[in-house]
Amino acid sequence: MVLKTNMTTNSLQINQGHQDIVTCNSQQTSLQIAQEQLYSLLVEIVQTSPPEEVLQEFKRLLINFIDLNNEDQVAGNYGISIVNNEQEFKHTVKRCCYIIINNWESKRNYKHIQELLKLLASYQFWGNRTNPKLNLYKIWLENFVNSNDYEELKSFNYKYEKPAYNQPSNGHWVNRYTSYLLVAQSFDANRPKEQQEAAKKLSKQMKNKFKFELAMYIARSQSAASHSTRYKNPSILGDEVLRLIKMIVVKKGVFSYENIANIFIKQTKQQNLQTFKESILKYLFYTAEKQELIATVKQQLADKLSSWRTEYNEEIINNNLLLRICNRLIDGLTTENGQEPSPLFILLLSQGNPLNLVIVLLKIILACKNARSHLEVRIAHLINYYEKYPEDECKWFINFLEIFNITFAIYAENVEYNLIKMREDKPSRPSQLNLDAYRIFSQLKANSYR
Hints:
single chain, mainly alpha, 2 domains, two-stranded antiparallel ribbon, 19 helices, 2 strands, 3% strand
């Protein structure tokens, strides 16, 4: 009898637990349906209505209800009031913002993007003692405006405000490298798909803008006649950037980095993974001076590769293995855990020339273009790590970012740079190239700048 009672009790507990799960799942499903209805409504409005009306509807759905005194209205099925926890609240507001931003950005409606962000920031966050639920929504909205999510939204102001890349501003030094942070957002599966899409488009536009301004600066700065209409230098390196660019593009023709990369890929096409691990290190460092620092870096990378995926050592190299081994090298040279710089990154920048590291990274990408996104995400991770430091304390890292920016802009697929000798000068040493005797010429190969 006791056994039967216990069984009955256990059965009731199991049934109650099952009902709780069903109720929870039902509530979650209802929330998702309501959210999708809200998103669909915003998509329809932003595609068919003037921006002023879109802003009014956004305010009605996501902000105005907080000031209502009628509890029944607050509990309605439209608007942000469908959400019952802060995590979902933040996600819903963020996705709504990116739905509007994506549509307006495609129409170059940058002014109203700024108005949208001001609308959130200008809300008055005083409490309402008579309605605890409304007070909670106020707190959540205030937390959102003070969060990193809102800071990320503010990146989309750049088209309207057009800040000078190399000019001091009230913002953080990290703002100069927003394009890399946006790349990381675009590959973050935990973010709304609209945010990933918006981040990808804006990052590309910012990179194109930098490439265009760099090309125009180079063209104008070497002509005395165009001094009055001179383009601003988009880097913070000053006029020394011209000499740096000459150093980067001096290797052209048969011995260009692109040609060497193509030869390397052709020569190693039939190698197995074990042999390829040795070949790629020779390719990356064959022109480097045989100094102790480079030897140390090469050996440490060799140690990392030798123990990596040994079960595939006898397989012939293919695109998948090439990408994975290049990503592995990038990790070793930048950050291996996405949270702090790798020992090799610190070693190379503290004791060596940043250009040496940048050229090695460039060689990796020229051998495997698909690794470019992984590299840029890793650069974003490094920026996130160093952003807690004042600009004066990490100038060496900022210098690396500037050289990285310029180098990869020069080797972009839609800009071509050439070094032309303008006069015969004898170098101070036979092996030394007199860069002052050369001029840089840039040519835009695609009309993709917006």
